[in-house]
Amino acid sequence: MISEPSRYVLVVEDDQIDAEYILKTLENFDISVEVAARSYEAISYLQHKDTQKPSIVLLDWKISGGGESVLRVVRQDPSLHTTPVVILSRSTAHVDVRAAYAAHANAFVAKAGELRDFQEQIMTICNFFLYTAQLPPGPESE
């Protein structure tokens, strides 16, 4: 019997407080978590050939170096292109929302101002993408 690989979430977040809230919330799930505080760190991690591919990417759109560059790498890499990417942002500017969806983000979520509400958002996102949605298998299972 082949065991299912453990799931993990890549959190790309440069705001230390938001990252801590996300990590605290993700403790409720039986998953591994990797955090990148800069876009180039996330890109390096994603492009490392020996690295397990994330089950979901939680991506701060306004991260240093630009969330769009991380999303572009995910969508252009055949081994990653079906990975769900959820944009988290304090911005609700239409230009940011349009740009994220034009770059093929799976969702754009404005970060809630209250801690409890923000944690509820993260729980909902992870419950949906990790346990509810049927995602395509990666190329290694074909």
Task: Provide an overview of this structure.
The protein is of the alpha/beta class. Helices cover 40% and strands 17% of the residues. The protein contains five helices and five strands. A five-stranded parallel beta sheet has the order 2-1-3-4-5, with helices on both faces. Helix 2 runs parallel beside helix 3. The protein is globular, with a radius of gyration of 14 Å. The two termini are 17 Å apart. The mean pLDDT is 89.
With helices defined by DSSP (H or I, 4 residues minimum), what is the helix count?
5
Strand order of the largest sheet: 2-1-3-4-5
Residue share in helix: 40-55%
Low-confidence stretches: none
The radius of gyration computed from the alpha-carbon positions, rounded to a whole number of angstroms, is 14 Å
Average pLDDT confidence is: 89
Largest sheet features: 5 strands, parallel
So what's the overall shape? globular
Task: Please tally the β strands and state the result.
Answer: 5
Q: Approximately how much beta-strand content do the residues carry?
A: 15-25%
Element order: H for helix, E for strand = EHEHEHEHEH
Structural class: alpha/beta
Query: What kind of assembly state do the chains in view correspond to?
Result: single chain
- The N- and C-terminal alpha carbons lie at a distance of 17 Å
